[in-house]
Amino acid sequence: MKDLIGRIRTLKEERGAVILVHNYQRPEIYRIADHIGDSFGLSKKASETGAEMIVFCGVDFMAECAHILSPGKTTLLPEIEARCPMAAMVSVEDMRKLKGKHPEAAVVSYVNTSAGVKAESDICCTSSNAVKVVNSLDEKDVIFVPDHNLANYVSRHTKKNIIPCKGWCYVHDKFSAGMLRRSKGIHPDAEVVVHPECRPEVIDLADNIFSTGGMLEHLKKSTSRKFIIGTEIGMIERLKMEFPGRTFLSAPPANICLQMKKTTLNSVLESLEKEQHRVTVPEDIRTRAKKALDRMLEVV
Length: 300
Ligand code: 13P
Ligand code: SF4
Description:
Strand content: 15-25%
CATH topology of the largest domain: Rossmann fold
Oligomer: single chain
Distance between the termini: 39 Å
Number of strands: 12
Number of domains: 3
Bound molecules: 1,3-dihydroxyacetonephosphate, iron/sulfur cluster
Structural class: alpha/beta
CATH class of the largest domain: Alpha Beta
Shape: globular
Helix content: 40-55%
């Protein structure tokens, strides 16, 4: 593994690349990262980087966002099959239908969407800024796609009328309120922190709700020693690494995002060697999608 990491680092320098790594990636991928973070933090890094090449260790929509924000750079997704199923749950046709049905509504798309869907939107959001983004709008009615759990969470923190869609994340939607209640009974001293993509009944049992980046920031301030974490299992590894003296348990049942785990050190090396898989978006779609992403970056 050491050799593989060394080869990746050398090639990365030769290519003038920056390696962006989502929190849900395998722990060995953290070791080659220039930046590890949540969707929002990594979008910001992608928009600010001076590197000539971006290697995105995450899923399809994240690399697409990087290309939308920095079209002059080469953006690579090491694993072509690393595709977020939730992002595929809303199509451009679905968006046009929703907009036709609610012509007065503003349209907010979660970053977990295709470039085409972003191009149909007024503004994007991530799990860390969804409430702020929705509350920044003038419109009373807000179409929110695709995650209906996140839409529900936002609706609890706004006076706007949220019009949800049919999408969900299979990783977060699986956490069980009944099992979490039992787990809290076994560990009454644990603080429960869950992601806003969880179901409302799971959110009701949590002490705090944060994006993956928000969890890290919160942990810096929290005085708790034990935590039950409701998000993809990879985040537990990240938290253990950052806060070695504390105990982290997964909310039950522990869930894995198979698409996030497709990226390996071998695929990153191959990606740098062959400059694959290049992510591009047709220019007319990219410029419209960029407006929605830029507007989000201005809000927060
Ligand atoms: P964040 O990193 O924004 O918390 O998003 C979680 C997620 O599911 C990304 O696909
Ligand atoms: Fe998509 Fe959920 Fe996996 Fe994130 S964790 S990439 S939202 S399936």
